[in-house]
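FYI - complex with cytidine-5'-triphosphate, inputs then prediction.
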Amino acid sequence: MSALAGKTLLVVVGGGIAAFKSALVVRELQRRGARVEVVLTEAATRFVTPVTFAAITGRKAHVDLWDASFPGELHVQLTDAADGVLVVPATADFLAKMAHGLGDDLGSVCLLAARGPVLVAPAMHPRMWSNPATVQNVATLRARGVAVCGPVDGPLASGASGMGRMVEPEPLVDALEACFTPQDLAGLRVLITAGGTHEALDPVRFLGNRSSGKMGYALAERAQRRGAAVTLVSGPVSLAPPADVTVVRVRSAVEMFDSVSNHYPAADVVVMAAAVADYRPAEVSPQKLKKTGEGVPAVTLVRNPDILASLGARRGAARHPTLVGFAVETENLVANARDKLARKGCDLIVANRAEDGFEGDSNVAVLVSPEGDLPVGALSKRALADRIFDHVVGLARPGV
Ligand code: CTP
């Protein structure tokens, strides 16, 4: 579930051309379960109208501080109800007002009365963004705890390109969500593996498996959002890496073993979500294997190193870092997982059935640990990642 679910958010729309994107931001906030109130500055109404937002939210969008149709003080009512405020787009003028504590319209007065997190999404011409006045105003706001998301380098409405483009709606809402996410993994270095491995037969063929990498990527995203410094060792997958995560790409089990062994000494938590091939072809042909007559080639396999078991053995009695493994089973789910927990020397095994776990976006899992078995039912991979870290947070120790 999104950290924004059930929250009431006040969106203040500023008067810049990027105002048109604020409608998409409001939609995305609602999609994640938030209730949204909208205030537009007078200048914003030159680009978008209150009707746009009333249609999306089902509530009146406000412009006028002196709206006589509202009994009482509108800015107090709006900020009493709001868990946080998002300014989108934040113009140079609006940032200046915020930095100086001015309140001459509904939006700026709401910012003065706001409680909870405040996030601004600046958008302006690059020369305005780099103007010393703006630079100082933004520094003042940051020092007061205001979160600033963007701008980014890219094409601008003027046809020019540069640092001044507003962040896109989805990453912007991600940034707001982060403001509401407890940073309970802050200070921890988390090493995660994801995806399957490709065990080469020749330059164009390999033995592989059906792992999509979605579970490992969801783990990396959630750990980063909860404040951890994350390294993701990824087998070949077709997923975009999560933001602000260090990604190391590998192909084979041996490459994954080498990479994990290198990063392991700096980790406080290791989560082995990768579906590592247990075997690899004994010989890798340097040339493409050709068909020869009617015969069928025989492939001899050799064992790959068991990465998780090697880490379990290496950490020994110190039990640092915290070790989490996965078990994909077709039968005797919990018994096999408990056996793996002992055999590989880990703190937690996430057990799931082969038919539930692969390729899809959700998983039915049991968390098997020395403390007992915890069935978590059907969850999205993102929600399962959170349940895993809820367990890990009680075990992990930073920087031992
Ligand atoms: N794993 C690993 N290195 C391997 C194989 C598996 O680190 N060579 C890790 C996986 O990342 C996963 C856990 O071990 O976290 C369980 O993998 P699985 O293949 O189910 O376990 P096996 O030990 O191969 O057990 P079995 O073949 O008996 O199911």
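The longest helix spans residues 19-31. The chain has 14 helices and 19 strands.
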